[in-house]
Amino acid sequence: MPVGGNGGGGTNADKRPNELLGSWFVRSGWSKGELARQVNRRARQLGAGHISTDTSRVRRWLDGENPREPIPRILSELFSERFGCVVSIEDLGLRAARQSPSATGVDLPWTGPQAVALLSEFSRSDLMLARRGFLGTSLALAAGPSLVEPLQRWLVPAPASPLPPQPETVADSRRPGRLSKPELDLLESTTQMFRQWDAQCGGGLRRKAVVGQLHEVTDLLQEPQPEGTGRRLFKVAAELAELAGWMSYDVGLQPTAQKYFVLALHAAKEAGDKPLGSYVLSNMSRQMIHLGRPDDALELIHLAQYGSRDCASPRTQAMLYAMEARAYANMGQPGKCKRAVRMAEDTFADADEWDEPDPDWIRFFSEAELFAENSHSYRDLAYVAGRSPTYASLAQPLMERAVELFAEDHEHQRSYALNLIGMATVHLLRREPEQSTQYASDAMRVARKVRSERVNTRIRKTVDTAVRDFGDLTAVVDLTEQLAVDLPEAAEAV
């Protein structure tokens, strides 16, 4: 009798058709026999030679029977490869439903083991897709209440652990799987190195390496560790998941980015690091602004501010105020935007007086970044207000200063390119096309060094605007010719 890996489905009377699996199956175009053959082939590759699936077994899965591992993982891989996107086990309806589930998977269990399992599963699927040359994007983004309301659980104290803390002893440090302090230090320094590479080269070059490191860390988190070691590992996992999300955002994989951000927030909570959690939320806010949802962005940034108000450094608080200003700008609220800009400036002035060193993840928020964020807020206000020259004039001196500072900073080339583009858009708002084309040309030069689809897309949009408004001008014609020759192709997500 063939072994299909069935189990856990209950009696026939209890089972209902698995509509999620059925939907993916119908869209795949496979027959039941073809899917069975592929499952068997992949099982043999995994060394699970006892599995011998047939069409009747596939029909039972579609009817609601839950197969045993490793079949759910195999099905996840097969459908992911078929569609070129991360199709998780849960997307296939092969895991018990959580309480109050969100349709997009934002409302995850706020407990350590589940967070680790989901980080491991998603990073594994992402690596598998990258290895086969797919752009690993998910199917849907969460927005509105389905995004914001579940994330409010970040503020709720975690339930007490059912197991007592494990004190670290000399014997513990010698057990297989237990990490030494030098090994933990190396993991943390490697994360910092990845962050530097991202700032210099963009998200397209090292994304796969970051995801791979994240997957390794989740393996370590599934082994018994002393409490202090576990917290440090969760912090590393949170930083790596945030960076994987940021790199995914940079290369245009928006749903994948959001999933990593959500998982990073869970890991930050397990690490007990509220400022890091607020930073993750700020990047989710930035993504919502990018996607044209400033109301959601404002909700997320307020959640970040509230959750870290008693522990975040002045530099972190200044960054949060700057993102609040961006949200208000895109909502067309100039009074609140200007107030948030002033709060960002005033709070940043206290950064050097902070007694403790800032964590590595916030050190990017330099004086140049402060000028850049605030200038972009005024630039965004100008667009919302119908291409207002008044707000463009407020943006220009701040943007000029940001460009000057980033020109001297060889570690943040992507930020330099983005602010060159920002200057080009400000000059277009001020009806100064010659100056705009010069900055856009400089941005293309920097973009050749940076694998960032976000940079490339913004350059294209700026050139399109210049063509629309000043298409007959010689400088604009020359710029379009340069664009056709010099702009890198869309960055491949790796």
Question: What would your notes on this structure say?
Answer:
This protein has 494 residues and is an all-alpha fold. The protein folds into three domains: 1-95, no CATH class; 105-155 and 180-272, no CATH class; 379-494. Helices cover 66% and strands 0% of the residues. α14 (314-330) packs parallel to α16. It is globular. Mean pLDDT is 84; it is low at 1-13, 96-103, 131-139, 160-174 and 490-494.
Please describe the topology of this protein.
Blueprint: H1 19-28, H2 32-45, H3 55-63, H4 71-83, H5 112-131, H6 145-151, H7 170-174, H8 181-201, H9 203-221, H10 227-250, H11 254-271, H12 274-290, H13 294-308, H14 314-330, H15 334-348, H16 367-384, H17 389-407, H18 413-429, H19 433-447, H20 453-470, H21 474-486
Helix pairs in contact: 2-3, 2-4, 5-9, 5-11, 6-13, 8-9, 8-10, 9-10, 10-11, 10-12, 11-12, 12-13, 12-14, 13-14, 14-15, 14-16, 15-16, 16-17, 16-18, 17-18, 18-19, 18-20, 19-20, 19-21, 20-21
Q: What is the rounded distance between the termini?
A: 43 Å
Strand content: under 5%
What Rg is obtained from the alpha carbons, in whole angstroms? 25 Å
**Which segments are poorly predicted (pLDDT under 50) over 5 or more consecutive residues?**
1-13, 96-103, 131-139, 160-174, 490-494
Number of E-type strands? 0
Indicate the multimeric state.
single chain
How many helices? The count is 21
Largest sheet: none
By secondary-structure content and strand pairing, the structural class works out as mainly alpha
Q: What number of domains?
A: 3
User: Given the C-alpha coordinates, what overall shape results?
Assistant: globular
If you average the pLDDT, what whole number results? 84
N to C succession of SSEs: HHHHHHHHHHHHHHHHHHHHH
- Specify the helix fraction band: 55-70%
